[in-house]
């Protein structure tokens, strides 16, 4: 009789899958990327590798197979592709995303699935909360970084307020803009968002509230908790 496949068995099965031969074309039909990839690599990992070849940031890249846009970013390529695959990439300036981050409960960091978010259910001037809900943000990709606009309150953005909290405010060209850097907790599929207006200060959550903190001015009990609280997964909402 067959039983359920354990996570370990599923992982071993993925590892046993043959490599994928992936070539990527630009919109002019020119091949810009060709590699043999492991099926365990995520779509986000592929986007980051592509960004190293074509320039720019991985958050501005969309990969298409035929007429289908590949998503979500965290899915292994082996669950999307097989054999020899040809993809096309385009650059996008706007995406709808949801935030995910780790929560700290009972002395341990839970998984992202049980963690926190960044709710866009707010009004002008409100301090933002780390509730994990179904609300999304409109992410704009800029030359100097990214910014996140409220869908329900157009023209208002996640901003670094002067009191150290994250608030929903109008932008001024600085306080709403972030540099995307590698996640402080080392997670490959996550990012940390550094304030353009206040370098060295990062978008993070603590005790239910969104803040902008530096490591030496953290509120968390330890550096490890701070690094988790300042690391985010940006999931495509569409």
Key terms for this structure?
mainly beta; globular; 3 helices; 238 residues; 2 domains; 5-stranded mixed β-sheet; 17 strands; 12% helix; Trefoil (Acidic Fibroblast Growth Factor, subunit A); Ubiquitin-like (UB roll); 4-stranded antiparallel β-sheet
Task: Produce a short descriptive summary.
The protein is mainly beta.
Question: What do these coordinates show?
Answer:
The protein has 238 residues and is mostly beta strands. The protein folds into 2 domains: 7-91, Ubiquitin-like (UB roll), CATH 3.10.20; 94-236, Trefoil (Acidic Fibroblast Growth Factor, subunit A) (Trefoil). It has helices at 7-16, 43-54, 223-229; strands at 20-25, 31-37, 61-65, 68-69, 84-91, 94-100, 104-105, 108-109, 137-141, 146-150, 157-160, 166-169, 178-182, 191-195, 202-206, 209-213, 233-236. The strands form 6 sheets. A 5-stranded mixed sheet has the order 2-1-5-3-4, with helices on one face. The protein has a 4-stranded antiparallel sheet with strand order 10-9-6-17, with no helix packed on it. It is globular, with a radius of gyration of 19 Å.
């Amino acid at each position: 009789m067959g039983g359920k496949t354990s996570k370990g068995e599923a992982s071993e099965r993925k590892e046993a899958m043959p490599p994928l031969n992936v070539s990527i074309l630009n919109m002019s039909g020119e091949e810009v990327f060709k590699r043999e990839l492991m099926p365990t690599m995520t779509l986000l990992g592929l986007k980051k590798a592509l960004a190293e070849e074509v320039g720019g940031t991985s958050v501005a890249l969309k990969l298409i197979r035929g007429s289908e846009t590949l998503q979500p970013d965290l899915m292994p390529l082996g669950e999307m592709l097989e054999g020899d695959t040809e993809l096309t990439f385009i650059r996008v300036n706007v995406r709808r995303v949801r935030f995910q981050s780790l929560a700290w409960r009972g002395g341990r960091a839970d998984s992202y699935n049980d963690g926190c978010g960044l709710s866009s259910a707010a009004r002008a001037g409100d301090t933002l909360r780390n509730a994990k809900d179904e609300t999304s943000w409109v992410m704009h990709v800029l030359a100097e970084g990214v910014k996140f606009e409220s869908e329900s309150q157009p023209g208002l953005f996640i901003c670094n307020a002067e009191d150290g909290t994250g608030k929903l405010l109008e932008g001024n060209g600085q306080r709403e803009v972030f540099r995307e850097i590698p996640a402080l907790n080392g997670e490959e599929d996550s990012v940390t968002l550094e304030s353009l207006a206040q370098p060295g200060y990062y978008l993070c959550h603590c005790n239910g509230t969104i803040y902008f903190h530096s490591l030496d001015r953290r509120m968390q009990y330890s550096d490890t908790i701070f690094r988790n609280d300042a690391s985010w997964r940006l999931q495509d909402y569409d």
